# Entry
Amino acid sequence: MNLTSPFAWSLYGIVGLSLLGLPVGHAMIGGSILYLFLAGLDMGTAAEQLLNGMYSSFLLLAIPLFVLAAEFMNAGSIMDRLLRFCNAIVGRFRGGMAHVNVVQSIIFASMSGSALADAASSGKLMQSLMTRDGRYPPAYAAALTTVSSVIGPIIPPSIPLVLYALVSDTSVGYLFLGGVIPGLLLGAVQMALIAVTAKRRNFPVEDKVPLRELPRVTWQAFPALLMPVILLGCLYSGITTPTEAAAVAAAYALAVSALLYRSVTLRDVYHSLCTSARITVSIGMLIAGALVFNYVITVENIPRTLSALLSAYQMSPLVFLLAVNVLLLVLGCFLEGTTIILVILPVLLPTAKALGIDPVHFGVMTVTNIMLGLVTPPYGLLLFMMNKIANVPLRDIVREVMPFLYVMIGALALIMLVPDLVLLLPRLMGYKGS
Amino acid sequence: MHPSLSRAVDWIRRRAENVVAGLLALMFVAFLVQIVFRYFFNFPVGWSSELSVITWLYMVLLGSALWLKEGEEIRFDLLTGAVGARARRVVAIVVGGATVVLFAMALPATIRYVMFMKVEHSSYLKIRLDLLYSVYVVFAVAVIVRYGWAVWAALRGEAPEETDVTEKGYGL
# Structure
């Protein structure tokens, strides 16, 4: 590549401005304008690409609606009921509350598409429950909430998978199905690690909830437990498009919280709208920037050049996947995940396709990897968040997170080596991909 | 910042929040109408999906232009978070200056493009596209004004504020 070409200058601009703290979306628009200027093209093209791209990205409307659904659910007293339900099931084992934390995350993951939202909604409550009377070390409790929140965007619905669907032209429905087993797998390895640690560190057991109480506790949590069924039902029966399914989920969540649990005020609704809108605007701006920059990348034919370059190395698919995973794990230590999905993955995708790697498998694997980036120091958004919520020093949380990170990387390796873990459910529902 | 100016900025920000939240509510309702009409009355309506796409475009551009603080956007703050007030000021001048120059450079061509779109209309609601797309001009001008202001403030000795990680809208 020519180091003084317009494209190179635009890259310097984007990387430089982003590193210095300009919002990444703005930096991509600015860098693209620089490219258009240096290449002697019409600078109005930036506006054209952004406006037409945003105007035709109907799929992305699922993002605000999924966030809204989780926010509405949260506004009700759903978390209490969910925790009582989880406690009745897994509280009886050693390290019971730690298991509750993971199971709660798995269930909440099927209503929410965001890991940060999961940590924000249950983090405070979980922290006080686990550290009450000094039962668990605060750092362990905080670390557990961070790692269990990672499951959120892997089990459907999932905001990162919607973004991946956008850049890869893959069906959101199949991607969502593909995330189910990997998400459960992450939960399983976490619970296995908890079981081992609980014995060694002698974690407490919760009071057994008698079995005859179980129907009542389940019944109380039932409307919330029904949400994933409704969501997936809408999606896979073909009644609605994925975006409409998100709207149905939000409507259901609002109805349950407002009518059944009667715990939602108009102020809560407005607050939920604002929270969802804030997330929508910040992701939307990044997407807008990526739309403009992707035009530059397309004009310069970068993905195909890279694909040709890599194919000259005669890489096997497995070596490529391994390289991608290492690259993403490293990038995840420093970069924020949305950026990686919208900017880095489109460059890698043509090569993956040329090597015959299934796009659904590739998507679920890379998104899982990128979510691990949320808990890898030095730049892990979930770590920062729990550091703030739980008021535990970052260093201590990181120390307790590390063992979980290792077993999760093990699970990621399994997902990479056994594509069927991802592809089994999509295929059962008629996915024809390789 | 002068107290009355700071009040005005706060006022704009609060009204922008009302508008953006309203747009999201509108999008939500448009979807519900669409689903109800199609499945209960067997009568597909096209205007609702057009309306929801418009609300999405406006939410993002207006929200970013007038509502969100810089710290709430998706940005890389590992480096700027680690340095002192003096260095943050220098960075604010460099970054703000570059942003103003780039967006201002493209502004004439941007306005030309948006005005050119007056020849087209949206499919269902028949809104002239130059009117619809003019929101990008609002966004571009807001970026120039905001970063211009940030440079001015930094030149006068104010360091940009630090950001609160839990306030971010990353959505991951």
About this structure: The radius of gyration of chain B is 20 Å.
